[in-house]
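Journal club prep — side note

Before the paper discussion, L.F. wants everyone to see what a predicted structure for a comparable chain looks like in token form. Sequence:
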Amino acid sequence: MLEASHNNELPVIPGKRYFTIGEVSELCGVKPHVLRYWEQEFTQLQPVKRRNRRYYQRQDVLMIRQIRSLLYDQGFTIGGARQRLAGDDAKGEETNFKQLIRQTISELEEVLEVLKA
């Protein structure tokens, strides 16, 4: 498990459409039961549920990483993080876009390395 100070060392999000709870757990450095609990606490987090299974999309993974950062790195409580996410929708979207841009740059750098080889 990653420590709170290692949020920048989270793995790159693969270019998939849907992720299982186990995959999201590894991508975000939190256990599956924590993800299920966060779904109850944060209305912004709503994975697709089919046949009693959860399927997360890229924006869900980014939201989970943002929640993880608020709780583990910045020291917010659940209630404080909920208020921050609800009150800072514009800023939250900006953060998501920044994360998405960083992710895209990283993926393009990987493609460049493959092309150079």
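L.F.'s comment for the group: The chain has five helices and two strands. Keep this in mind when we get to the figures.
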